[in-house]
Design a protein that fits this description.
- There is one protein chain.
- This protein is of the alpha+beta class.
- It is 30% helix and 23% strand.
- The protein has helices at residues 5-11, 61-83, 108-123, and strands at 29-32, 35-38, 89-100, 130-136, 145-153.
- A hairpin with a 2-residue loop joins strand 1 and strand 2.
């Protein structure tokens, strides 16, 4: 992929948001050696959740997939807050997605695809990653989805 990560975001009509303020005692991201691990990122927009509830009940799978993309964008903002320049990302190593799920909802992988697809669009081959998509009973502030990233930095 040619050009900078932020130029690619602009091409896609996306803006990197301000880093979401932590809801408790933690930081948005931590660098350790050549890796950055983000805390779980909720799909907040301007500090608010656009939608709350369980996927498969109050929230459709399609809407949750869109929200997972917002989580990934928020996670990239957290990474940038630690490294300064997203072009320093060598690759996304792992994505973990948590989906607040109605008892009979089993489409967690499709929901977390929203994050995976956004990372692929923005980072190209550097965005290809290992992944877990986990169904949970509830997430902080009744968010439908939460995503965390582990990224490796280029030397």
């Amino acid at each position: 992929m040619s050009g900078s990560v932020e130029a690619r975001l602009a091409e896609l009509g996306l803006t990197l948001p301000q880093v979401a303020a932590p809801l408790a005692s933690y930081v948005p991201a931590v660098r350790s050696g050549s890796y950055v691990q983000t805390s779980g990122q909720l799909p907040t927009v301007d500090g608010k959740l656009p939608v709350t509830g369980k996927v498969g009940a109050e929230v459709t799978a399609e809407e949750a997939k869109r929200l997972a993309g917002i989580c990934a964008l928020n996670a990239l903002a957290a990474v940038k807050s630690v490294i300064g320049d997203l072009d320093r990302i060598a690759r996304v190593v792992k994505v973990t997605g948590f989906v607040a799920s109605a008892p009979d909802f089993t489409g967690q992988p499709g929901v977390v695809n929203g994050a995976s697809e956004l990372l692929g669009e923005v980072l190209g081959d550097k965005g290809v990653h290992a992944r877990s998509a986990v169904g949970v009973t509830v997430l902080p502030i009744d968010a439908p989805v939460e995503v965390e990233l582990l990224v490796e930095l280029a030397d």
